[in-house]
Write a structure and sequence with these properties.
The chain is of the alpha+beta class. It has eight helices and four strands.
């Protein structure tokens, strides 16, 4: 019984990557945050899939494995666009700065870079959702915190900027029944390594293994939500259909 379940999940992972290969072919290839195009060239809403050089699949075939899946504007009435969310992850359009308080992706990568010793210790990293409030709590000046965080923000931008990603346009309305949210949580659940045995485990040098977040280390993803959930195989049919519709529209 367990063997059949493992085989089924392996086959679903293989199918997921084949579907994403189709998306890559139809959309003209992977993109990079370091070369984020102007907003007018992007769909209003969508789902994004990040890969990582050096992180190769082991049990589901060949090629780079997924390391983060995400979307945006899931709450009813939310108005953020896909480009705005990607810009939050990328950092500033000029230079290598950024705001990790506006991007959990940046926050997680920065924590791991500090833990691995690639960046200096920073007592304000991840404190509060606003740098001004962080300065109040830590009883220091905002300008001092910004200066201490700057080299880490730059390192995060450089790291994330090298990760290739794919985007799937899905222009549905925000809300609990969003197709974008459905695809996101099921893709995360399927690729998470929290389900034994691990089919596509991270490499020993993957930065995420230095994270202080248990779910990041054990899932092999720069995600924390949905990593412990079970996936619904039918989401692959819906993903495939969404890709074909995005090309026809």
């Amino acid at each position: 019984m367990a063997g059949r379940a493992i085989m089924s999940r392996t086959n679903d992972l293989i199918r997921l990557y084949r579907i994403l290969d189709r998306l890559e072919a139809l959309s003209g290839g992977k993109r990079f945050l370091a070369q984020l195009a102007p907003s007018r060239t992007w769909p209003r809403r969508g789902v994004y899939f990040f890969f990582e050089p050096g992180e190769t699949r082991k049990g589901s075939g060949h090629g780079e494995r997924l390391v983060r899946v995400g979307t945006h504007a899931l709450g009813a009435g939310a108005r953020s666009t896909l480009h705005q969310r990607l810009r939050q992850h990328a950092g500033r359009s000029s230079g290598l700065g950024g705001n990790h308080r506006g991007s959990i992706f940046r926050l997680l990568v920065g924590e791991a870079l500090i833990a691995r010793g690639d960046c200096p210790e920073c007592r304000s990293w991840g404190v509060k959702g606003d740098i001004g409030k962080a300065a109040e709590i830590l009883m220091t000046q905002r300008i001092e915190l910004a200066a201490a965080e700057a080299p880490i923000e730059a390192a995060v931008s450089e790291y994330i900027g090298r990760l290739p990603f794919l985007c799937l346009p899905v222009d549905d309305e925000p809300g609990p029944d969003s197709l974008r949210g459905y695809i996101e949580r099921n893709a995360i659940a399927l690729t998470s390594c929290l389900h034994e045995p691990m089919i596509d485990p991270p490499s020993r040098s993957w930065l995420g293994l230095c994270s202080g977040r248990d779910k990041v280390r054990r899932s092999g993803l720069w995600n924390q939500r949905h990593v412990e959930e079970n996936y619904e195989p039918r989401f692959l049919d819906m993903l495939e259909t969404a890709i074909e519709r995005s090309i026809d529209s």
